Amino acid sequence: MSSEFITLFMFATMMLLLLTGQRVFGVIGFVGTAAALWLWGEGSFEMPFNASFQVLNWYPLITVPFFVFMGYMMSESGIASNLYRMFHVWFGSINGGLALGTIGLMVLISCMNGLSVAGMAIGATIALPELLRRGYNKVMVTGVVQAGSSLGILIPPSVVLVLYAMIARQPVLQLWIAGVLPGLMMATIFAVYIYVRCRLNPELGPALSEEELAEITWGEKISLLREGLMPLAIFGLMMGMFLTGVTSLVESSAVGALLTVIGAVIERKLSWKVMEASLRNTLSVTCMFLWLILAALCFSAVYDGLGAVKAIENLLVSSWNFDPWTILIIMLISFIVMGAFLDDTAMLVIVAPLYIPLVIKLGFNPIWFGVLYTVTCQIAYITPPFGYNLFLMRAMAPPEITLIDIYRSIVPFFFLMVISLIILIIFPQITLWLPELYAGR
Amino acid sequence: MPKPIKIFVRYVDAVNYAVGRFAMYLFFVIGGVLIYATLSRVVAGVPVNWAIELSQFVLSAYYLLGGAYSMQLNGHVRMDLIYASSSPQKRALTDAITILFVIFYLVVLFMGGLSATNYAIVYGQKNYSSWAPLLWPIKVIMTFGIFLMLLQTISTFFKDIAAARGTPIE
Q1: For residues A119 and B92, what is the distance between their CA atoms, to the nearest angstrom?
Q2: How far is A258 from A280, CA to CA, in rounded Å?
Q3: I want to staple A295 with a disulfide (CB 3.0 to 4.6 A). Which of A25, A182, B121, B144 is the partner?
Q4: Is the whole model's pTM more than 0.80, yes or no?
């Protein structure tokens, strides 16, 4: 039996089992384990456990609980709702202003959040009810929250880029800096889209009424702005210490979490209830994430043993004779298609080791590819049938938002993200300018 | 459901809840180790060579011991396109069948853990680093965490069967 057939068979079995709705980590782990036992017999029964030692040795994974915790602390302590109020008073006077404010809020949350879960929690529980109450178009704002929170994996700190860095053996710092401008660019594209749509059709996002605007004092505006600076200050301190080499990556994440707790104490928002909820959510998300990686490592070890890396390279380069750009685009499209069905963390662990050696061999910049990969992940987050943000949205959205609304809401943002991806492919400078500036200092 | 199964489910859930709550606080241990290492190096000028390794060990304990509790919290993602739109009873039925795959994976994972732990104890295996700690304690904890996850999955299996038959436990 050829290794191509086995690989294909494994993927097909996995997809089929995933469709049954069983927990993703269990399905992936089962297919990997069963394939190993089938191919190499009983002697390979230690293989699934050995993957746990690879998790152990990937020390940057220590950052995961901290970057997840920071996001939940913002959400549970209510600091995020004050931030939202800040955007409210500053942008409320224009049509669609609150939706624009939601994008702004998501960018701020992304500065403290390594995954998109906390952003989604904040968006669905704080921003959405307020937006709906004010008569915003529910399809548009559902999309805004999903697309906005996906920025959490592109704007540093990003856990997805940490994982990519480990697999591609690239410096995390360079990847994080590389994510900054593309992240801000995407936020701007979303904002322009919202502004133009609400400009053309003000009913989509009604502005605050005159009376309400009159109630907002300059004193409140200024004090809210001061509170809004806190996440930026925490981000600045944490990244500053990391950039100047005072703390390592892992230490920075712990320092960031500590600063967030201190910030909550200063704002008088820390209670045992807040702490307990943050810790519980952090445990739940971290376990989900690390068990997935554990299972995916077992899966990828199988076709690593089969030599699938060489097989793919032969197929694309020698057999089909594609030029580098075609191969790059095929890879990205396959990420988007696979990401629609597969969890993106599992996808990274499973597919990236196949692609990255080839990307480097073809002469592409692996930092740039990491950012392109992350954007495809963001697309995967919102594309059905499987997307993190879709999954979370279904669980957290207010009842008046139906499944159909959720699916319809992502259509424009899907295209905006694809456009962003194309811009980033055509202009690598957007991604690489900051890392090169930093490296050449 | 027969009484022994009900008792099994109740005890497994209770034990895993307690262990999971304990694991939840390991977050502070990892954080404390890292903050201590940072302060020690930056303020006192004394680098600590065991901080990263120790936090890796604690992280492993954190996610393996906390795994079963996170399952109770329903924290593990599913591809729920079809799943979400079917009735609770139908969902429980599919789950009761497909969870056998998860049990199979966890059994093999657990056997691998036992064998690796045994090796580490017999040969006094040490980590290849400047601190060079013994590896068996962490392997025991990891294998124990996998065992608890296995028990939780079996407990979930029973609960799924009960729910599919229309007589949910609890």
Answers
A1: 31
A2: 17
A3: A25
A4: yes
| Distance (Å) from the alpha carbon of B14 to chain A's nearest alpha carbon | 16
Q: Give the ipTM.
A: 0.95
B35, B60, B84 member nearest A258 (Cβ):
B35
Instruction: Report CB contact under 8 Å: B77, A284.
Output: no
Whole-angstrom Cα distance, residue B9 to residue B156? 8
**Is the Cβ pair B56, A343 closer than 8 Å?**
no
Euclidean distance between CA atoms A44 and A47, whole angstroms: 5
CB A322 within 8 A of CB A316: yes
Chain B residues closer than 8 Å to A397 by CB:
none
